Amino acid sequence: MTPKTTSLIELPTDLDCTQLPQHVAVIMDGNGRWAKQRGFPRMMGHKRGAQTLKDLLRCCKDWGISALTVYAFSTENWGRSMEEVDFLMTLFENLFQVELAEMVSEQVKLEVVGNLVNLTPSLYNAIDRAKNATQHNQGVRFTVAINYGGRQEIVRACQAIATQVQEGLIKASDIDENLLAQHLDTAALPDPDLLIRTSGEMRISNFLLWQLAYAEIYVTDTLWPDFDRRAFHHALLNYQQRHRRFGKA
Ligand code: IPE
Ligand code: IPE
Ligand code: MG
Which fold has domain 20-150+194-239? Predict the structure, then answer.
């Protein structure tokens, strides 16, 4: 549901409120480089990045963007040092706990996608509590991808569908794009209209491989901790200049 129009007061006047992306996906990249530039440990970049995310979520509410999905930890990120992985997992757990009250009061509906079975029980429980506490909220649909990989997500969906075929519940010929999409972690969400990647890398790094089929892609050199309202405004202006053809002439 789109947040109340009264909250759109702050929308920059050069943005067309009828042409905003409904669903914005973000690859929040560049925390390590941000810290390195300042002579800080990488962890400082992650901490600042969390603040940036909080500001962006509020901005989505203010500007009437109904869904925000962010890449927080990929299945490949386990390959980082144990210190960094532990720091990130603890950071996520703290955020789900500390920010919960505000998410509830701001009507945020939280979802977490990815393979959650490998997470520590305490992080898993914090996610579960936050999801349950916000599930009836009607504001921004905020989805965080943790231990997420697009390929793995598609494999899990195929396994679930194959099991149904094996049990005789459906036929192989019943499998279509719709059915596969319904078995993805993002089943309840429309596909992203806009993908933003910070820090200049021109790749999608295993994020939402299925769902991004027709998303507009915006890459900025700005490092994630510096991605503020102004930078988001710029991304939206750029999006509004695109002509989305969906294969048509
Ligand atoms: C993104 O920033 C955050 C995560 C992947 C968790 P990085 O940590 O990848 O930062 P860079 O790319 O090394 O600068
Ligand atoms: C993508 O960033 C994952 C997240 C932002 C969570 P990475 O920093 O892991 O991506 P690569 O390694 O540069 O492709
Ligand atoms: Mg990176």
Answer: Undecaprenyl pyrophosphate synthetase (3.40.1180)
The domain segmentation of the chain, as residue ranges, is 20-150+194-239
Lining residues, ligand 2, CB within 6 Å: 27-29, 71-74, 77, 201, 203, 205
pLDDT of res. 10 = 85
Contact assessment for residue 104 and residue 134, using Cβ atoms and an 8 Å cutoff: yes
Per residue in 154-210, pLDDT (tens digit) is 999 999 999 999 999 999 999 999 999 999 999 999 999 999 999 999 999 999 999
> What ligand has the least distance to the C-alpha of 36?
1
Is 28's C-beta closer than 6 angstroms to any atom of ligand 1?
yes
Map tokens 């504001």 to a residue: 139
Mean pLDDT of 225-249: 97
Tell me the CA–centroid distance for residue 89 and ligand 3, in Å. 16
Separation of alpha carbons 203 and 207, rounded Å: 9
Residues 135, 116: Cα–Cα separation, whole Å: 18
**Using CA positions, which residue lies closest to atom 1 of ligand 1?**
29
**Nearest alpha-carbon partner for 226 in 11, 14, 12, 35:** 35
Minimum-distance ligand 1 atom for the alpha carbon of 46:
3
- In this structure, are residues 108 and 33 in contact, taking their beta carbons and an 8 Å threshold? no
Residue 86, pLDDT > 80, answer yes
